[in-house]
Amino acid sequence: MPNNKLVFDANAILRYILDDIPEQADIVEKIINERESLALPEVIAETVYILTKHYNIERKEAVENIIIFLNETNDKNEILRLALKIFSETNFDFVDCILYANSKQYDIFTFDKKLSGFIGRAFESRQVHLTS
């Protein structure tokens, strides 16, 4: 068996969370129990979008289910967990929540005034002098 971690795609995570195709949900569960695995932020962003927009699941419920999945996989990505928490408590889209969660480590540049205000320390576009 390979030594590297296994990464789930959104479809696998959705099958596990929704249990709408039990055979596939069982396979994902078996893999979780047998392999060290994780979910990439990009994949969680897609999963969040599909759960909330396609399945019309409320933000808090979607986040609760994703957190359960992350706990099952022992995924300790604190940035991702913070982004999920923020997403469940605000109206920001999930990618903005990821940016906010990363703002403690990185300066975030945005023209989005709402996001800039939320982050509180993003550069303002007028402070940057662009040259051609």
Structure description:
The structure is a single chain. This protein is mostly helical. It has a domain at 6-94. The protein is built from 7 helices and 2 strands, in the order βααβααααα. It has helices spanning 10-18, 22-34, 41-54, 59-73, 78-89, 94-102, 113-119, and strands spanning 6-7, 37-38. The protein has a two-stranded parallel ribbon. α1 packs across α2 (22-34), α4 runs antiparallel to α5 and α5 packs across α6 (94-102). The longest helix has 15 residues, at 59-73. Residues 121-132 have low confidence and may be disordered.
List the main descriptive attributes of the protein structure presented here.
single chain, 132 residues, mainly alpha, two-stranded parallel ribbon, 7 helices, 2 strands, 60% helix, disordered C terminus
| Helical proportion, percent range | 55-70%
H and E order? EHHEHHHHH
- Cα Rg: 17 Å
Question: Which strand order spans the largest sheet, edge to edge or round the barrel?
Answer: 1-2
Total beta-strand segments: 2
By DSSP (H or I, 4+ residues per run), the number of helices equals 7
Mean pLDDT: 88
Strand fraction: under 5%
Task: Give the biggest beta sheet.
Answer: 2 strands, parallel
- Molecular shape: globular
Question: How far do the termini sit from each other?
Answer: 53 Å
Poorly predicted residue ranges: 121-132
User: What structural class do the secondary elements suggest?
Assistant: mainly alpha
